[in-house]
Design goal:
The chain has 151 residues and is an alpha+beta fold. It has one domain: 2-Layer Sandwich (Alpha-D-Glucose-1,6-Bisphosphate, Chain A, domain 4). The chain has 3 helices and 5 strands. A 5-stranded antiparallel beta sheet has the order 1-5-4-3-2.
Length: 151
């Protein structure tokens, strides 16, 4: 879901996009930095293992690996953080969004955007797509659940 004033709009169009969204009702306010920290700083062991495996597999192809997500923040404001990187095969961007409170509700989302730079980017993303969806969905739901338990 792309918000009206989203920072990500200037990076469109792309070849692939997905979005996970949650409306929190009567929960503590979550800032976009809280969401970023919950998703990108607290990995279960199985995700760390998959990321290391991916890094080993793509290193011979010259893809960038093993980056800290803080190092790839492209831009941010009070409601959104854009992270991303471009290599010779593909450009990926992630938008983390946390709305302001409105009627005791807050909209939280994570969206991924991918632009293929060549056929190898398309092949690479086809191989990792399912893992991407599983990991992002899991981490997003986990972040929301842990945040909601703070009541």
């Amino acid at each position: 879901m792309i918000q009206e004033n989203s920072l990500i709009k200037k990076y469109l169009p792309v070849d692939y996009k997905d979005c996970f969204i949650e409306t929190m009702v009567d929960k503590p306010y979550m800032s976009v930095k809280d969401l970023f920290n919950s998703i990108f700083h607290q990995y279960p062991q199985w995700i760390l293992w998959l990321l290391k495996l991916r890094d080993l597999m793509v290193k011979p192809f010259g893809l960038k690996t093993n980056k800290s997500f803080e190092n790839i923040i492209v831009e941010e404001n009070d409601n959104e953080i854009i992270i991303g990187t471009k290599d010779k095969h593909l450009t990926f961007l992630v938008s983390l969004f946390c709305s302001d409170f409105s009627d005791k509700k807050q909209i939280i989302s994570i969206s991924t955007f991918v632009k293929y730079e060549n056929i190898l980017g398309r092949i690479y993303f086809a191989v990792i797509w399912l893992f991407h969806r599983i990991i992002i969905a899991y981490q997003f739901k986990r972040a929301i659940r842990k945040w909601s338990e703070q009541l």
